[in-house]
Amino acid sequence: MQLTDAQRLDWLRLIRTEGVGPRSFRALINRFGGAAAALEALPALARRQGRPAVLFTQAQAEDEVAALDRIGGRLIAAGEVDYPRLLHRTDAAPPLLALRGAPILNRPAVAVVGSRNASTAGLAFAERLTRGLGESGLTIVSGLARGIDVRAHRASLSTGTVAVMAGGQDRIYPASHAALVDAILGEGGAVLAEMPMGWEPRGRDFPRRNRIISGLSYGTIVVEAARRSGSLITARFALDQNREVFAVPGSPLDPRAEGTNDLIRQGATLVSDVSHVLDVLGPIIEGGPEAEAAPARGGPDLAEQPDFWDEIDLDAYLPNSAPPHAPRGRPDTATDEIGFDPPEPADDRARIIALLGPCPVGTDELARCAGVGARVVQSVLLELELDGRIERHGSGTVSLVSR
């Protein structure tokens, strides 16, 4: 399928119209045979439900397409050649995606996600794992967040990475990652967004983004995640989409490992080496996007949450046309674990302490992750040692003493 320019504008108008989300979009297209006809029918449908029809105008659609074109982006529609086939097979797949960069969305991919407040050990392992997976031919998908996401993107720049944004293409979050976006685009990677140009991400937009991250990928790897974690939502989506879930084990003394350890206990594949991922995904990838997926296993214990989209209820008017309900996500919230990045630690000492954990790490790696010199690290470590907060090990490694 290839939309004409006029059809693409109609699709954009329909999905941007108030009360229309991925589920109702598909129902309307199936019922009326096209977006133009659905737009004509919407006012009458809305009146039956006692709500006004606020249609996205032709001028608004043209302005959005022009704004996206000015920054080198374009809209790809579900069913078109560049639209990711794996994502297309999921419930509530976005009808339209804004794409900047190379059309690499149909290469075999794996998602790598994890804590925004990652430890030095977690960052180092994520880099090693991601680089090995990239060198083995897998594209790396992640969410451009601080911590594990950024380390995964940077480690796979030369082999191919896809960044999925929670806001519009012109609203990079956090703004400090604009240079990384430029590097991704410059190295032949891709940047995706579901939301319109100018859209500032809200709390509920991060889970929406997460179902795209897992939907693009044959499997999702979680590296460090607390029990209340946006990374666990990505894992839940992966399970709902019949994709593989992998988890990196961590110290039971580190709260950042509680979520990943729980995933392993619930049946996720333990990962401590690149081969652990390749052994599972190799046969699945050989089957291609159309291969039958394995039955989903039990997911993490997440409570039922409100729908992402405030969609008009079409069931009474469009019988037998509505697709299954979309996955459920978290409501608006500005917590670190669910979406928004926490503020950067105010000083070098706080940054170094945040990177320490129960697992021993080398001082050179600690300095690299903290972005400070070796002398600064040694000074802070001496202060922490005198305070009884760290333990020194062989080969110049240190760990935080659990209290």
From TrEMBL:
Highest taxon listed in the record's lineage: Bacteria
Species the sequence originates in: Methylobacterium longum
Pfam families the UniProt entry points to: DNA_processg_A, DprA_N, WHD_DprA
Transmembrane segments: none
Stretches for region Disordered: 319-346
InterPro entries on file: DprA (IPR003488), DprA_WH (IPR041614), DrpA_SLOG (IPR057666), WH-like_DNA-bd_sf (IPR036388)
Ranges where the Smf/DprA SLOG domain occurs: 75-280
Family from the record: Belongs to the DprA/Smf family.
Coiled-coil regions listed: none
Annotated DprA winged helix domain residues: 342-394
Protein name, as recorded: DNA-processing protein DprA
